[in-house]
Write a structure and sequence with these properties.
19-stranded parallel β-sheet, ten-stranded mixed β-sheet, mainly beta
Length: 366
């Protein structure tokens, strides 16, 4: 059939289908969306997924919440740019006790910003474990959100049980960020875990600070700073002045049961305040951990003022490389380290730690 020949009805239908298919194959991919937040208020988006970040149709007011709702509803990795030096006070939570949720890949570019949950009884930020399909009633689809946040402080989260500041199950990178003054649990509840951060996914902290967070429970308070059950990497970062409270506590600073790498960082001045607590600075109760070119100092606990290792159900594997454990205190054993199993030291200094009592072979106090 030549181009000038007549097209029969049957051939016409096939031709239309072919043209439509070629159009799909040659159409350019949808460009990732970029949203510029221009309002410090906390109001939802008028129509999530329409590509317009605005709280009322046509008003052009783009809040942080509205921008996140747009990026959650749009496929692919998007970008949110925050206003420099602006604080975002959150006033809304969902039924799960979350102030802000990320359910798709996004980059959030901040510049000296604070996201403040104002003690709402919620985690400040939740990164979901799978990507939500907004067109299918938010059904989880295969994949994990990849999220990067820079230049932002996460403040005053107050989670009912876990992840006071951030609850992460995706792939999250924090660069030049602060997670501070958050809390998980309450004296009226059985346990609180991860006062600053609870990580069940992949979390990377670069040039960041986790400080002044708390995990509390009337039975258990675990990980005042960070609870890691996934993969956690800290580089040029500080975990300091975090604490736990409760009859049974673990890890004023960090509790690790996954894969942990601490490089060129400081774990300092964290307090595990339980009457039988362990690991003021770091607890390795399973999984693997390497501490390299770092300092663990000024931490306090009932046992293992600096570090407690090997006390969990799974075998612990902790390597200390070119690091210093100093100035830590325990009320009973192991001012510097309280070790049951799985600790190897390479060119590491343990000095000036103090323990009220010590048992030979299982604790290192000085």
């Amino acid at each position: 059939m030549g181009f000038g020949a007549a097209v029969s009805p049957g051939n016409r239908s096939a031709l239309f289908m072919l043209v439509a298919l070629l159009a799909c194959l040659t159409a350019p991919p949808l460009a990732a969306a970029t949203f510029a937040v221009n309002s410090p208020g906390d109001f939802p988006d008028a129509n999530p997924g329409d590509g317009h970040c605005e709280t009322v149709a046509g008003n052009g007011a783009c809040t942080l919440r509205a921008a996140l709702e747009e990026t959650n509803a749009l496929a692919g990795a998007d970008t949110i740019n925050l206003q420099p030096n602006v604080n975002y006070a959150l006033t809304m939570t969902d039924s799960l006790g979350i102030a802000l949720e990320i359910a798709d890949s996004v980059m959030i570019n901040g510049s000296n910003n604070m996201i403040d949950a104002m003690g709402l009884g919620a985690s400040v930020l939740y990164v979901t474990k799978c990507i939500r399909d907004a067109s299918a009633s938010n059904v989880c689809t295969i994949g994990s959100p990849v999220v990067t946040v820079s230049g932002v402080s996460f403040l005053h989260g107050n989670a009912i049980q876990q992840g006071g500041g951030i609850l992460n199950y995706g792939t999250l990178t924090l660069s030049h960020c602060v997670v501070s003054s958050n809390k998980a649990g309450d004296v009226g509840l059985n346990f609180g875990t991860g006062g600053g951060i609870l990580n069940g996914g992949t979390l990377t902290l670069v040039d960041s600070v986790v400080a002044g967070n708390n995990a509390t429970g009337n039975m258990h308070g675990y990980a005042g700073g960070i609870w890691n059950g996934g993969t956690l990497t800290l580089t040029n970062s500080v975990v300091s002045t975090n604490s736990t409270n409760g009859p049974t506590t673990l890890g004023g600073g960090i509790v690790n049961g996954g894969t942990l790498t601490i490089d060129s960082s400081a774990i300092r001045d964290n307090h595990d305040n339980g009457t039988t607590g362990e690991g003021g600075g770091l607890v390795v109760n399973g999984g693997s951990a390497i501490v390299r070119n770092s300092t663990i100092s000024g931490n306090r606990s009932y046992r293992g003022g600096g570090i407690s290792a090997g006390g969990g159900i799974g075998a612990a594997n902790l390597n200390l490389v070119n690091s210093t454990v100093s100035g830590n205190f325990s009320f009973e054993n192991g001012g510097g380290l309280y070790v049951r199993q799985g600790v190897t030291l390479y060119n590491t200094t343990i000095t000036d730690n103090l323990a009220n009592a010590d048992d030979s072979g299982s604790a290192i106090g000085g």
